[in-house]
Amino acid sequence: MGSGTGAPLSGGPLHADLERLYRIRLDEAGLPGALFQGDPPADTASPVPAGPPSHEYEPGDAVERALERIAATDGEIRAWALVDAEGARAQAEQGAGRGPLHGLPVGVKDLIDVAGLPTGGGSRQLSGPGRERVPAADAGCVTRLREAGAVIVGKTTTHEYAFGGTTPPTRNPHDTARIPGGSSGGSAAAVAAGHVRLALGSDTAGSVRIPSAYCGTAGFVPSPGRLPGDGVLPLAWSLDRVGLIAATAGDIAASASALGIISPAGGAARPAGFEGLRIGVPAGTLDEPIDADVGAAAEEAFATVRDMGGEIVDVEIPHGWAAAAAGMTIILAECLDYHRERRGAGAEELFGADVHAMLDLAGEVPAGAYVRAQRVRNVLRGEALAALSGVDLLMMPTMPCVAPRVDAVADGMVPVGGTEVTMAAAHLRYNVLANLAALPCGTQPLGTDRDGLPIGLQWVAAPGRDATLISAMTTFAPRAPRAHGR
């Protein structure tokens, strides 16, 4: 999910945010229908040109090299909850299928079922005698990977039940004193460390995009319905989606094509630029607090799009400020319902301290607040779609800051632009709207700050316009990343 701990509801920041939600004028519309989980419309954009992800094509060699890289560096990075070396070698010996991802070693977040491997969810609740969860069948997204020829190397770490933004004990490969982000921090760290070029994550409020930005990888969350969500431990069922984390935007394009998310391009040529495209930047995007180098990188990205023929347009999302509060309220209410039996089963002490605190906070959220948050969600969806009706894409930083040090976030606060904000405020700021509005979204590296830490650039598109979004990522990607603030 990628938020973090919070203060008690009574008199705390969430209490104040809920009061603001109740001041939003709403029409008579109820909850947002089926919560936007139906089949998205077809994308009218041209197919995205993409070959297979860059990797060794002999499955056995590719797997052995991945296992060697993991063995060499994962003792420090700790991106893997489980490495299935024997199973990966067996898949490679069987040929791993002759699909477009033939022989590609892949990691799978440890919320997602892989047949025969325990799904630990990053929690002691699902480890130990009598508690282990070993699924008999693959999740739908893993089935897609196997059908495309990929080799499952193992399970990558997740923040406990995806309920946080740090993913302990995993560290950021760019600086192991820093967090990788979360909750898909293991997948991003494994890709950033060069263990694999592709990994699956899940995204409830930024959990694919946050660690991708912090670790310098590309991330993509497709429109609801484009990638199966069965066989995945939930955080908040009405927001959760499975996403991809890859080494480059080109690898995202290739993988999305191989998994049937976008149409294969055949021999189509890569667009030369952004000619004819209108790119929206939501009002207030670069308002403080924001790291100076992140703001400078974003300004440079806007200029690059203009140089490549695109038009940068200011757009309004009037109640965008409410996204974080609505998102947190929905997450708290839905996760509390999911964990109800665990909290009353005499094993509550097996929750980590931060998750325990969040569930206690969730217990203070009134039922009416959940209903209100879902109705506000409907308002935000309408405003986002209205903004996108006049532009082809939205563009913004993925995070207002670079990856913070582990010790700097121990109290749930994050340094941003010379001040401190809550982890939820930092992590949800640019990310949760796409989940609330059920929009496809992606992030890609945008150079580094003055200390060499990655900065991310985010794209958001209208429902079903996944190919348009990935085309923008691959069009922008050839620009050489640079260090800012020098």
Description:
By secondary structure, the protein is α/β, with parallel strands linked by helices. It has one domain: Amidase signature (AS) enzymes (Alpha-Beta Complex). It is 33% helix and 14% strand. The strands form two sheets. It has an eleven-stranded mixed β-sheet with strand order 1-3-2-4-6-5-12-13-9-7-8, with helices on both faces. It has a two-stranded antiparallel sheet with strand order 10-11. The longest helix is centred in the last third of the chain and has 23 residues. The relative contact order is 0.17. The mean pLDDT is 90.
CATH topology: Amidase signature (AS) enzymes
Q: Which class of secondary structure composition applies to the elements?
A: alpha/beta
Query: What fraction of the residues are assigned to beta strands by DSSP?
Result: 5-15%
Number of domains: 1
Largest sheet: spatial strand order: 1-3-2-4-6-5-12-13-9-7-8
Top CATH class: Alpha Beta
Helix coverage percent of residues?
25-40%
- Helix tally equals 15
